[in-house]
Amino acid sequence: MKRTLISVLTLILSVGYVHAAGTIILEGNYQGKNLFVQNPFTGSGVGFCTFEVTINDQVTTDEINSSAFEIDFTAMQLEIGTKVVVKIKHGDDCKPKVLNPEVLKPKSTFDIVDMKIDDEGMLEWITNNETGKLPYVIEQFRWNKWVKVGEEEGKGQTANNSYTFKVTSHSGENKFRVKQVDYSRRPRYSSAIKHRSKKPPVTFAPQKVKDNILFSDKTMYEIYDAYGNIVKKGFGDNVDVSNLKRGTYYINYDKDMGKFLKK
User: Fold this and answer.
1) Spatial separation of the C-alpha atoms in residues 150 and 178, rounded to whole Å
2) Does domain 2-104 match CATH 2.60.120?
3) C-alpha–C-alpha distance, residues 68 and 226, integer Å
4) Is the previous residue joined to 206 through a cis bond, with omega within 30 degrees of 0?
5) In which residue ranges of the chain is pLDDT below 70?
């Protein structure tokens, strides 16, 4: 009886050791590419580290008993952009390495179907061929540069996606565009769309100021010091500059650039 009990305990401990493991979890969207895994031997040198791979909790049929293997998504018949969770289960004395995890990260692939802006400043764009949810950054061309004016979360569908964003035009001709930045950090831009505003040009005063700068209408603005550092930015019809040091400052407003002296 004693010998039998010892044998049962030995079996339980043995099974527990075999299944003591770690799990690598990768989440993302299927982009039409497979994962490649470097698979070392177990710590004992007998057998390979990985003992199970699942995609969305379904065990794959990949040949994992080798020093390197491929996680093949094609057998799952997934559509591009489908959310996937990959789990790689391995022994606790070793760890496989996924060589290209970036293939599950959203990639900017959008195409612009239509883009327009109405007289009220409502920017609308329609896209297709999105393969992952990435934010759209809305930019406006002012002061000889592109300036971020807003952001909209992408929908990530391959079919048509419709977006709207209320922009604030400056006087004269305006240009707007949208962009996405994926894991590669390379931005992908739409073409610029033009819109002419009927607003009169904005002016500011005084040129020599102690406390407040006043604009003739509400406007976006940026104020730089003599070294090119932004010291104030915002939107409104006045700016409190009482806390700035004396000296010359440069100001971007409406579509123009100017300077003033802080007394």
Assistant:
1) 10
2) yes
3) 58
4) yes
5) 1-20
